[in-house]
Amino acid sequence: MQILCEAAIRMRLSALIVLGSLCGVAQAQAQAQAMKHPGVLVSGEQLNFIEQQVKEKKEPIYGEYLKATASPLAAFDYKLLGPPLTGIVDCGPYSRPDHGCHAEDTDASAAYLQAVLWWITGDHRYADNSIRIMNTYARQLKGYTGSNAPLQAAWSSETFPRAAEIIRYSHAGWKQEDIQAFSTMLTQVILPHIHDGGPRTNGNWELSMIEGMMGIAVFTDDRALLNHAEGMWRKRVATYFYNAKLDGDHPRTPDPSVHQSWYGQTTFDESTNGIAAETCRDLGHTGYSIAATMAAAETAHIQGDKLYESEEQRLIGVLEFHAHLFLRKEPAPATVCGGKVHYAEGYTFGIGYNEYHNRLGQSLPETREWLDHILSVAEPVDIHMMTFELLTHGEDAKGKGTDLAATPGAAAH
């Protein structure tokens, strides 16, 4: 009997050891999968760094901070523009019709910028404005309609989660029931429009959707959604941006469901290394694509994932190629869009430069020259997902330093 009892005890102990081991593995896996907060585009560490740079009036961040505080988006008496009384945002091509489209875009940008300024300054008026904007949309936004509904949802999903992460994890006083209402808006009103990507022709749409999904995933602690979005990023980036060394004499072929147009571009070699599928459409939509691509990679970076690294060679080429076009040093060669490029203004590339130069020490001379130009102009960059990128990513908390020029006259303020 004693032998039987001792055997039973040993079996019980073994079971407990196994169970404890399994629990330990599960706990380790859960910790490995846990999201970092704030973790959408800007980390807490980076926000603290920005705050210190502003206090010490260090460029280029301090000059961008002055531009930000002077922006209508940062007004203490900011007046909400939307959503429409119906709760339905109706957007057609190029926002025609525009029933709440530009209003929502502006409100989301204001919520994000004021959240950033709240962290930097500690002035609660910024936090209160950001919370007021997000609560209004959380309670009143009912849906999207029109041919551009998916794109409008994507743009909102890029910006709103950035604001929400900062406010939620900065002790700003955002009530739990309001946070829940906002989460419901993200997952039930916005996410259905972007989860599967598309349309399968314009990459700027899908890349914005991917970035937006990643922000929603982090805010709602949905690792499966984050993995889904990162998988889409890897596929789309590799086929949307051309790299001569990686791809040979033609771009990579996307999935059969993607009918990607190159808008007449036929030359694919070193002379077009870095060109995007929509470059020959116009540099405006291409700028959206680059911004969304880099912002998504930045959120992944904060969460410990390596999208930047997986396409380093390709994306450095993208930045340098398009910065050169934006600088307009000479007419576009015949190999690029037949020599006819449709230009646009207001695109920075600051997030990508921060990664590849400030962190990794890579040389991107064309991108640097373009960013020095951006820093020199009085008007800030605050279109769609590109909201004061050089305020938040003009330099990096763990970087090797930046060589960007100071904003002219900024130090005199």
At a glance:
The protein is mainly alpha-helical. The protein is 57% helix and 4% strand. It has a 3-stranded mixed sheet with strand order 4-3-5, covered by helices on one side. A two-stranded antiparallel ribbon has the order 1-2.
Describe it.
With 413 residues, this protein is mainly α. The chain is globular. It has 16 helices and 7 strands. The protein has a 3-stranded mixed beta sheet, covered by helices on one side. A hairpin with a 6-residue loop joins β3 (88-91) and β4 (98-99).
Features:
single chain, 413 residues, mainly alpha, two-stranded antiparallel sheet, 16 helices, 7 strands
Order of helices and strands: HEEHHEEHHEHHHHHHHHHHEEH
Shape: globular
Q: How confident is the prediction overall: mean pLDDT?
A: 90
Unreliable residue stretches: 3-32, 409-413
Strand content: under 5%
What would you call the structural class? mainly alpha
As an assembly, this protein is: single chain
Distance between the termini: 89 Å
Count of helical regions: 16
What spatial order of strands do you see in the largest sheet?
A: 4-3-5
Radius of gyration equals 23 Å
Number of strands: 7
Tell me the major beta sheet.
Answer: 3 strands, mixed
SSE order and pairing:
Layout: H1 2-33, E1 39-40, E2 42-43, H2 44-55, H3 61-70, E3 88-91, E4 98-99, H4 101-121, H5 124-140, E5 143-145, H6 149-168, H7 176-194, H8 203-219, H9 223-240, H10 244-247, H11 283-302, H12 307-310, H13 312-327, H14 350-359, H15 365-376, E6 382-383, E7 386-387, H16 389-393
Parallel strand pairs: 3-5
Antiparallel strand pairs: 1-2, 3-4, 6-7
